[in-house]
């Protein structure tokens, strides 16, 4: 929670932000320490953790190096960053027209799919 004008405002933390905060705190690092080491501002680091800034591959690598993450922990952070992005783009270059239609239809309707349909799609794609 953040205090704004005497009222408490809830700050949403992304999956990426949760993992970074957990590992940072486990190692005894403050957000400012990490920001300084990565040569970014504390507000930028906070914006990454709360999903207000896009998480670049470069920053993921820097965070992994700073927190000394390897193997499964590094992959967990990469996966968390992927689901924490405010938007994604799909490269349709080279795809057949029907495949392009599938990508566009999915993008248009993802927000209106029922939880059941989403689960079915994740299973179908092997992401469950």
Automatic annotation (TrEMBL):
GO terms for molecular function: DNA binding. Residues 20-74 form the HTH cro/C1-type domain. PROSITE patterns: HTH_CROC1. Pfam families: HTH_31. It comes from the Bacteria. This is HTH cro/C1-type domain-containing protein. It comes from Citrobacter freundii.
